[in-house]
Amino acid sequence: MNLAHNKSRLGQNLKGWSKNFVPNQNFVVSKYEDLISQLKSCKQTPEIAQIHGYFVKTGLDQNPFNLSKLLASSVHNIQYAASIFEHIQNPNLFMFNTMLRGYSISDDPKQAFGVFNNLRARGLLLDQFSYITTLKAVRVIMNRLLFLAK
Asked: Which spans of this chain does UniProt mark as PPR repeats (predicted)?
C-alpha cells in the first residue's frame, strides 16, 4: 500500500474514536487492538505521528504499553523516537532497550552509551538485550573506525 492510502485508512479509523463517542466495552477493545495493529504496520513517520497525536489527544499516551509500541514503531527514525522517549516520565526496561536498538542501527550509535548509562543510573536491572544492543553499537563504531583507518 502507498503512503496516501495508509494515511487515508488511518485517518478514517481514528475518526471512529471521537471523545464524544461512548461505545460498549467489546467495541473499545476491538478498536484499540486495531489501532495497535495499525501502529505495528506503520512504516512511515507521518503515519506513526498521526497515531502518536491521537494517543496524546485521548490520553492513551499515559499507558506504558502504548508508549512501548509507539517507540518500537518509530525506532527507524531515531530522532522521532528520542523525542518521544525524552517525554516519558518513567521509562521501563523495554523502552530503554528499544532506544538502545534504535541507536545501534542509527547514524549516531555513540548515543547508545548515554542511554545505557541512563538506564544503569536509574537502577533498573539490565537484561541480555541491554548488553547485546550496546555491544552492537560498539561494533558499528569499531567497524567505522577500522574502515577509516584503511
From this structure: 92-126
Each residue of 51-105: pLDDT tens digit? 999 899 988 899 999 999 999 999 999 999 999 999 999 999 999 999 999 999 9
Under 8 Å between Cβ of 75 and 101: yes
> What is the spatial distance between Cα 12 and Cα 76, in angstroms, rounded to a whole number?
25
Cα 111 to Cα 103: distance, rounded to the nearest angstrom: 6
CA angle 126, 128, 102 (to 5 degrees): 85
Compute the CA torsion angle 64, 111, 53, 35 (nearest 10 deg).
-50
Q: What whole-number distance in Å separates Cα of residue 67 and Cα of residue 106?
A: 20
